[in-house]
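thread: overnight batch results

M.L. [08:02]
morning all. the overnight job finished for the chain we discussed friday. pasting input first so we're all looking at the same thing
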Amino acid sequence: MEALLRSEPGAPLTVNQQVVAGASAGVAVAILATPTELMADVAKDLTAGTIGGAAQLIVGHPFDTIKVKLQSQLVPPPGQLPRYSGAIDAVKQTIAAEGPGCSMKSLC
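M.L. [08:03]
and the structure it wrote out:
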């Protein structure tokens, strides 16, 4: 089985190949990583998580702001229209009243 997993004759197996070989042979495989490899993985994970979290915040915050405005508007008395007729109207009114950067102002 090990010979089938080698990319080149005599080349050492990667960790993933060792796990596949060990699992298919019914052998318990211990995966050992050096401290440098662990720190590199932590740095990659931290960087990816930071970038992903920032992207989620930048993209999602304006939508959340409009959602909150729609959910918190008061129920109008009978015969009167609500303050916002929908999401697009809420966006238009908010930008007109507070400016184009209004949905991100609470982040600063």
